[in-house]
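Below is how a single chain appears once it has passed through the pipeline. First comes the sequence as given, then the structure the pipeline wrote out for it. We keep one example in the README because the format questions we get most often are answered faster by looking than by reading.
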Amino acid sequence: MDLLSALVDKGLRREPPTRAEALAVLATSDDDLLEVVAAAGRVRRAWFGRRVKLNYLVNLKSGLCPEDCSYCSQRLGSKAEILTYTWLKPDAAVAAANAGVAGGARRVCLVASGRGPTDRDVERVCETVSALRAEHGAAVEVCACLGLLSEGQAERLRAAGADAYNHNLNTSQAAYADICTTHDFADRAETVRRARAGGLSPCSGLIAGMGESDEDLVDVAFALRGLGVDSVPVNFLIPFDGTPLAGRWELTPQRALRVLAMVRFVCQDAEVRIAGGRELHLRTLQPLALHIANSLFLGDYLTSEGQSGRADLAMIADAGFEVEGGTPPAGPPDTGAGHGERGGQPDPDGQPAGAAAPVAVRRRGAGTTLPPNA
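Resulting structure:
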């Protein structure tokens, strides 16, 4: 296919595709899907070989956010029955992070709900960052995700030892008011710029499946490229009950792969991460996504359960890839999904057969007395 040949050539030179080419990737047919994956895989391997970087989330403060992001289970007015708790102490946060590191994670992502951190919040997180750095040295990267940054806060996190800062754009500027009214696209973009200016590696991505158009997906991908982000988490909507987007199941595994491929062709040498919702929407095609993306989250997400850590490691090995930064602990594979698969039974509420439902709320790990999933 001429389109894919052109995109591979541009990807190897880091020459941006045209907007029309990116839209054409999303418009390809299911008959062409394996060709799309193979072409995106050539670009992925050129920049990252067969390595897969594992990331591990630690939710430092869960729920009760004052923002009204319609996709989020922690939003203002959310009726989702998630875990809610205030700030974890540094020793509890480090213990949760250590479980992910033991499972093979090279980056720990420290996340807290809220519009943005106060200076006291930054101090708390800096204590945790310093504790992680003291325990693991340079072997583990530390990323913070605390909301909108104020002036000087990125510099403080960097001085404490943080490597990166995550703040997702989520959707296009044109569509942003459809998903949030308490802040805007410009606020998010400015935080990404502040992170970079403060010496932190900028991490920012998107959410697919919220009712956006192909144009919105392409626009946000080019916005991320324009901001020069180093890593791009691609999330797929987790439609929690109790949120405005509950019951929205518009993605197919094939569509999710095309979204990932489009992002790879636009952000060729960025770390593309398969993020939240992969188990729900990619389902049995998750291994194919590894040919496009070079990174994923290990274990659970902020408020929902993920695939078991051992199943993730087995999937990576079975697909012929290797974990970046070392060899994870050996052990028998665990093929349990951990998020309650339906086994292909039809859903009376309209969810696609084969998808996982209902969403399994996280009840283990950080903020609980149960061991984490890693």
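The chain is about 35% helix and 10% strand.

See the next section for the split statistics.
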